[in-house]
Specification:
The chain has a 4-stranded antiparallel beta sheet. It starts with a helix and ends with a strand. It contains 5 helices and 4 strands, in the order αααβαββαβ. With 133 residues, it is α+β, with helices and mostly antiparallel strands. It folds into 2 domains: 1-49; 54-133, Alpha-Beta Plaits, CATH 3.30.70.
């Protein structure tokens, strides 16, 4: 599979935009799953292609972190809202390391400012933590 993380993020964004416009709920769900898959591929490629853009690097560079629990069926529509949150504010989406604790998966979202992290937490819940990296 070829392509860059940026390219796969564009595919994810296209899936999100299509999901907003299709009337059929099953088509919308498929597009959301595709967006999640493209987003995860982008994240993996970023880690492979640029070690300085790794999750650990994001946590060091953007130390205000919101830890969000992942529902059993994935982030789904929440991922669309998270992508929109970053796009609307013209912020790079920076994901930290994933965690699993007591049978629950968590995703860390990293921010350069406490104001952005707090706004994200208010919108999506989760726990505000600070990077120890």
């Amino acid at each position: 599979m070829s392509g860059s993380g940026a390219e796969y993020r564009l595919y994810a964004a296209e899936c999100v935009e299509l999901a907003k416009r299709v009337p059929d709920a099953s088509d919308k769900a498929r597009l959301v799953k595709m967006a999640q898959a493209f987003f995860e591929l982008a994240h993996k490629l970023d880690r492979l292609e640029a070690p300085s853009n790794s999750a650990a690097h994001n946590e060091r560079e953007c130390p205000y972190i919101v830890e969000v629990a992942v529902p059993p069926n994935g982030l789904g529509a929440t991922l669309i809202a998270i992508l929109d949150f970053h796009r609307d504010r013209k912020r790079d989406l920076r994901r930290g390391r994933s965690r699993r604790r007591d049978g629950q998966d968590y995703v860390l979202w990293c921010f350069a400012s406490i104001a952005d992290a707090t706004e994200f937490q208010k919108a999506f819940g989760g726990k505000l933590i600070f990077s120890l990296s």
